[in-house]
Amino acid sequence: MQKILNVSAIKNGTVIDHISPNVLFKVIAILELDLCSDMVTIGNNLESKQVHKKGIVKIENRFFHDNEVDKIALIAPSAKLNVIKDYKVVEKRNVSIPTKIDAIAKCFNPKCITNFEDVTTHFAVVSTEPLALKCHYCEKITFGDQLELK
């Protein structure tokens, strides 16, 4: 049986694979890939052996920092990152939700000091399923469906 690629290979960059189709465009938005000047290939509702359908994003010449990987994990916790160099996968990594979230999420509480002062947000992850973050300042819980990333 011949293997056929649905999405073309990239020479150098990062592939974000196994994104749930319902959050694919959120991942694209939080990473601001619409502003990327290099090639970005997006595939959605692709067949998957592990899950029924998946999304994938290939970004040429882009490698992610830890805070960007944390953003991906908050939106798409089942995603996998593949770092590509010279058309070869040199690193595979599952994203994981960290125990602390700093400076990348907004507090859901409109009265929280972080929403009207120049204060960096800090959250402790209370639960990953469902996602629940506890604000360091006001101690309110922000749930995944309320989550707004910076």
TrEMBL record:
UniProt entry keywords in alphabetical sequence: Transferase
EC number: 2.1.3.2
Broad enzyme group: transferase
Name of this protein: Aspartate carbamoyltransferase regulatory subunit
